[in-house]
UniProtKB/TrEMBL annotation:
The lineage of its organism: Bacteria, Pseudomonadati, Pseudomonadota, Betaproteobacteria, Burkholderiales. Its EC number is 2.1.1.297. It comes from Parasutterella muris. It is an enzyme of class 2 (transferase). It catalyses: L-glutaminyl-[peptide chain release factor] + S-adenosyl-L-methionine = N(5)-methyl-L-glutaminyl-[peptide chain release factor] + S-adenosyl-L-homocysteine + H(+). This is peptide chain release factor N(5)-glutamine methyltransferase. Keywords: Methyltransferase, S-adenosyl-L-methionine, Transferase. GO terms for molecular function: nucleic acid binding; peptide chain release factor N(5)-glutamine methyltransferase activity. InterPro entries: DNA_methylase_N6_adenine_CS, HemK-like, N5-glutamine_MTase, PrmC_N, RF_methyltr_PrmC, SAM-dependent_MTases_sf, Small_mtfrase_dom. Residues 12-67 form the Release factor glutamine methyltransferase N-terminal domain. One of its GO terms (biological process) is methylation.
Length: 267
């Protein structure tokens, strides 16, 4: 017989992971894991715990095992077709919430789980929020999250700005595009996440040029463009804005003090 306490002590998983996965399997939150520490686990619970333990030991991220990830105080469904939302992206969202003009139309390119677009709509109901992704599976995940969270966001399928041509008057463009270099050693820890949402050519900078090129060629005239990027890409992204005649962009830091997103505002 194995008790709650024994499993938590004996499991080789990291402490935070085992607590989350134990709650996922048994429904016992961290407080009840302590108050029910002597309870004996059923054979069914032990089998399920062994299953999720092996998945985690194989490197599968916890959110892909549980199917959910917290972002800006809300729970988003996630799966292998979308990136796992990161806390650093909340810094970009906070800036947008505080600085986007009232009532404008804003699009989130490469929306993935929908965490940026849906958080914007839920925190700023005055905004007309649209979101798009090249991946149909990602759009389906984002739509499910929108229904669950009651976020009134419109979704389009397609590459960058092409789905918006002729139909929308976009005043703000937001994107957390692929920005990791193809040879970046950090990719070894991200093998279970969709690589096409992580990796970009041109040293991780291709997506920024593609989006700005489309904005120009498709004659969009946004007042604000905001891009998330890697900790060492702020200067490069500012230079790309300048390549397209967009001077005065500013890079902002994340919670760890690293460059994380760059914003250009029309003057």
């Amino acid at each position: 017989m194995t008790t709650v306490e024994q499993w938590l002590v004996q499991s080789p998983l990291e402490a935070a992971d085992k607590r989350v996965l134990f709650e996922f399997v048994t429904g016992l939150d961290r407080i009840r894991q302590m108050t029910h520490s002597k309870n004996v686990l059923s054979p069914q619970a032990l089998e399920k715990l062994r299953e999720v333990e092996q998945k985690r030991l194989a490197g599968i991220p916890v959110p892909y095992i549980t199917g959910v990830q917290e972002f800006y105080g809300r729970t988003f469904s996630v799966g292998p077709s979308v990136l796992i939302p990161r806390p650093d992206t909340e810094c970009l969202v906070e800036w947008l919430i505080e600085n986007l003009p009232h009532g404008i139309q804003v699009c989130d390119l490469g929306t993935g789980s929908g965490c940026i677009a849906e958080t914007l709509k839920l925190e700023r109901s005055d905004l007309d929020v649209l979101a798009s992704d090249l991946s149909r599976s990602a759009i389906e995940t984002a739509r499910r999250n929108a229904v669950s969270l009651k976020a009134d966001v419109r979704f389009l399928e397609g590459s960058w700005l092409k789905p918006y041509v002729g139909h929308f008057d976009l005043k703000a463009i937001v994107s957390n595009p692929p920005y990791i270099r193809s040879r970046d050693p950090h990719l070894k820890a991200l093998t279970f996440e969709p690589q096409n949402a992580l990796v970009a050519q041109e040293n991780g900078l291709a997506a920024y040029r593609e989006i700005l090129s489309e904005a120009k060629s498709l004659k969009f005239n946004p007042h604000i463009i905001a891009f998330e990027h890697g900790y060492d890409q702020g200067e490069s992204v500012r230079s790309i804005f300048s390549e397209f005649g967009m001077e005065g962009s500013k890079t902002h830091k994340d919670y760890g003090g690293n460059d994380r997103f760059t914003v250009w505002c029309r003057t």
